[in-house]
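Usage example:
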Amino acid sequence: MTAPLSPESALESHFVDEEQPDGGDSGPIVSKSPGQLARARFLKDKLSMVALVIVVLYVLAAISAPLLVKVGFLDPYSSNQDLLNEFQLPIGAWGGISGDHWLGVEPGIGRDVLSRVWYGISFSLAISLTATVIAVLIGVTLGIVSGASGGWVDAIIGRAIDLTLAFPQTLMLLALSTVAIAFITEVLGVPAGPPAQSLYVVVVLGLFGWTGVARIVRGQVLSLREREFVAASQMMGASKFRLYFKEILPNLWAPILVTFTLIMPAFVSAEAALAFLNVSIRPPTPTLGNVLSDSLKFAENDPVYFFVPAILIAAIVVSFNLLGDGLRDALDPKGHR
Amino acid sequence: MWAYIVRRLFIGVALLLALTLVTFVLFFASPVDPARYACGKNCSEDQRDQARAALGYDKPVYEQWGLFMKGIVAGRDFPADEELRAAAPEVVTHCAAPCLGYSHLNSSTVNDLVVDAAPVSISLALVALVMWLVGGVLFGILAAVFKGSFIDRGIVGLTLVAYAFPTFFIAVFFLKYLAVKWELWPYPTYISLEDGGLASWLGNLIIPSFTLALVFMAGYVRMTRAFMLESMTEDYIRTAKSKGLKQRTVLFKHGLRAALTPLVTMTGLDFATLLGGAIITESVFAYPGLGLLTVQASEAWDLPTVIGVVVLAGAFVILMNIIVDISYAFIDPRVRLG
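Running the assembly step on the lines above writes:
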């Protein structure tokens, strides 16, 4: 038996005996691959479809924002002092909403709120996406190695997970920021400001966030490694690298996809929390987190400015979570939760 | 059983050693002079040299780590430099074991700072724990019983939305709207048990703890719901039902017990994490717990305090891990410890 090349065919070959050989009188029976079944289940799930649409809208917003800023449609940096009253609050109801400023202007400086949050989505999603990729890369690699090799390697990786979990994450992020950002700018030569700040957040979120992925992947690998195709390729003399990443890895795409969609929203929240602690990218460059934490000063006096970024964060977090749940339900029919 | 406990403790000690070592390497192996971060932001050259000598930052990293570990096991004296101690015996501060360090900025041992701050964090964590456990488990069971219905979707959806809003937003919303604008609740300030008695201690903790509990509630609802659904399909549940037991008994005595094991793990770890300080909640409500202590310490560049709390918080998690693993055997008879 040759090893499956694509994940789809891997699942297909496994389920092939379920196809009924005799069609009976009811005409030819069309067999569906598990992939097709999963897709059908997912498309039928209305809540997940709504979540998917919202996630796609956010991604489109994130991609379009830099272009719209260049074109001049969005203007996240210019101040509009003439739109503020003597208390530095926007003139007019609802935080100064007008034809020019659809979500009003921010108190204090008077920048356009729509431009701030729209552009902020770009930075927030870019940070959480990159951090998620790092966490998943580390987690998947260590999870496969840990599950497939077992023995002392497994034990060491297990202890490494315990150790990582023991570190108070937020506290470390906060406390290390001064030292680490100095290191990033002075030694690595990354320009100070947003590049150094975002690099720091991304790397540290990734370094602390991989443990969950590793545990899930390890669990899957433990059962995968007993399968015939692994034994077969072992007998054909496949190297460890080939075994781990060419044979086992392609069978893990479903759990990896699900964990990916569930880590993303956690990192969006984490970015916001870090912005509150002044660790994320700092203003004037907007992120959803730093816009929201700037709005705290005006919580009672300018509710629109206070609620808009919070709702935008909550919406993306909820959507990603629902999408992840929907994917899990669709891909794992046995887990009927 | 005893062999297992001993082995677990042994691994715990090894993890603790690794934790302190990694912390030291992270903070001291960088090219930035740690003395700069230990004596405050506006620190002159002289003061920096003084801090360096007093804290022993002029020694190599491994030696400092050794001193720190010695402090934890046997206690130590500050300033770290022997000549300094001999020259001015009146300023020597003894820091008894387990010594977490000496804050040059506060002129006090980190232990004293921690002893002041810990009750606040413990109070917050305890009340929050009760809230999210009771809420999470009850709502989780309710959602499982009414699986697929309006109630189920409502509970799961609402807790997810509450989780999705950033904690500092919810905290500020409660403060500025509930307490200040609508005056529905008195403005919360921390009052210790000794100072104000049970009623005012608890009354002031409700809003901050509820803020914290909302973060965890969604996870516990989902977890309880999932495990209840799973355990309700087991044979022993059918047996219990067909014996004619009341639904309440079946749910709470038979169903919930199987769901307890994963819940205990999660609870233990979340609680341990919170004991190290709820950084954001404490900052917004200005509750002087370990979280606020570290925020202030890291803003003021008070490195010894930061390291002390990191090590302490890590120790909580490692210890709780051991307790959780051992308590498995008592909760779930199916778990055999090898």
